[in-house]
Specification:
alpha+beta
Length: about 210
């Protein structure tokens, strides 16, 4: 996306160091509302598919996004995806890892599969800092990592749109450029770098793969 969560993380570090970060305290009603919205964004139920169908499709989704960098691990009911990333800026660098957990659960008596997804990103920065030893003396500082779950609906909107396609529930594959326009038009909030960024995600379409064959 145009506004990178990776760049945002670097800015966040600077804000924290300057002591300018403000804490907004939510009321119980506001907190519950945000929680319910996030559960809705990260959960979807599918019919006429199996748990295995879902987990195989998620594996393919990760490999299409960036098969070289995603480390994928399977369990009976879940799939874990880990992707490390590094961004080099002019005088600094930001690095981190995105951790995905996607679970598929058969809903008893309903012949449906409930899919839940959780994504957590951990980011840290390396930046030069002036020392007190004299003019033009610099040292390199590694700022402590910040870990957080990715909030908002935007990332999960792309994830479930692509999962819909891979499960045969949709005829449209949402690539990153289309996703950016779609999210902007629908005013969907949240960062999407864990699936779409302008640095090094491959963003391969299954349609393109099929055409190559």
């Amino acid at each position: 996306m145009k506004i990178s969560v990776r760049l945002f993380s670097c800015i966040s570090f600077a804000v924290i160091l300057m002591g300018c970060a403000e804490t907004k305290y939510l009321t119980r009603e506001e907190s519950l509302k945000l929680r319910n919205e996030q559960i809705e964004a990260t959960t979807k139920t599918y019919d006429a598919v199996t748990k295995e169908d879902v987990l195989i499709a998620v594996d393919k989704l990760f490999r299409l996004a960036d098969g070289d960098d995603f480390q994928i691990t399977h369990t009976e009911n879940s799939i874990f995806g880990k992707r490390r990333w590094t961004i080099y800026l002019v005088l600094a660098a930001s690095m981190g890892v995105d951790n995905w957990i996607v679970s598929a659960e058969d809903e008893k008596g309903l012949k449906t599969v409930k899919v839940t997804v959780r994504v957590q990103t951990s980011a840290s920065s390396i930046t030069p800092m002036m020392t007190t030893a004299g003019t033009n003396n610099w040292s390199v500082a590694t700022l402590p990592p910040i870990e957080d779950s990715i909030q908002g609906r935007a990332l999960y909107y792309i994830f479930f749109s692509r999962l819909d396609y891979l499960l045969g529930k949709s005829t449209k594959w949402l690539n990153c450029d289309e996703a950016e326009a779609d999210i902007k038009e629908k005013k969907i909030k949240g960062f999407t770098d864990a699936l779409c960024n302008s640095f090094n995600m491959k963003d391969i379409s299954p349609i393109d793969l099929q055409a190559e064959k």
